[in-house]
Amino acid sequence: MTLNVLWLQSGGCGGCSMSLLCADTVNFPALLRGNGIELLWHPALSLQGGQDLLDLLEDCLAGRVRLDALCIEGALLRGPQGSGRFHVLAGTGVAMIAWVRRLSAVATHVLAVGSCAAWGGITASGSNPTDACGLQYEDERQGGLLGAGFRARGGLPVINIAGCPTHPGWVTDTLMALAAGLLTAADLDPLGRPRFYADQLVHHGCTRNEYYEYKASAAKPSDLGCTMENMGCKGTQAHADCNSRLWNGYGSCTRAGYACISCTEPGFQSPGHPFHLTPKLAGIPIGLPIDMPKAWFVALASLSKSATPKRVKKNSHSDHLALPPVSRKTGLR
Known about the structure:
The structure is a single chain. The protein has helices spanning 15-20, 28-34, 50-62, 96-106, 115-119, 168-179, 195-198, 209-213, 294-306, 310-316, and strands spanning 3-9, 37-41, 69-73, 76-77, 88-89, 94-95, 109-113, 132-133, 137-138, 141-142, 159-161, 280-281, 284-285. The protein is an alpha/beta fold. The chain folds into two domains: 3-198, Rossmann fold (3-Layer(aba) Sandwich); 200-319, Cytochrome-c3 Hydrogenase, Chain A, domain 2 (Irregular). The strands form five sheets. The chain has a five-stranded parallel beta sheet. A two-stranded antiparallel ribbon has the order 4-8. A two-stranded antiparallel ribbon has the order 5-6.
């Protein structure tokens, strides 16, 4: 039996759909079909027009078409004054939040695709004039549009495929797991994110790890050194597999020279400091590796810096490999 998937866009930039198009395949429709996934409708990928969508929505609500997975991209806009009139589904006169509530009630699974749909994300930043929220969260607070107690007909809460944008593999792997009946409550972390990527850290596989180990830190954007100490990187705290499951098979934020801003995390959009700077207290970064006591980190950092090889120190403040590793035999037999 196929997994029938309906994808709707709410308040957001469409970046998660753009990311989805970069899935690691030469034939995206065949990837879905080959894994038992039927895409009923997607705003960018489907040929059907507006009336076709409205007929499909009514068929899903009436039970004439089985709705296995409802994917929502973008934050839910509840304003003004709870009416949802900031976002009305074209041709219906009905607020998108009303459609989402009704469809969620008949869907076997409900998926929040991206951090906007999961927590509110960028759409809910600042003064949040549209009263944007996630499906089941407002930042780290449970609730959102559907409420903390919501469970889809399959028994699971909202599956939060968080990221800004999401990695296409996070979306396709989640849908494949649902199609195969292999995604259970135990496969979701405490925030409802699939564990196959949320139990990893961006730090894992980072090409700057040697610099991190010696605390050889970058001082400006073009430097090769670790960006944790001075330039805002949260890779040691961010839950994602971005450096082991590369984007477009090639890169990641840190590999491109940008700090990880922990975009899979609730509230990442409003860190209280510039994204490119690391907040410190008495010269010590406030955000430290998640499992390390601060006193240990300070002691190890001091030892690491005193033992930094000249090569690592020189390269950390350069925009290219200034000193290569010394060529010598390892002495191993």
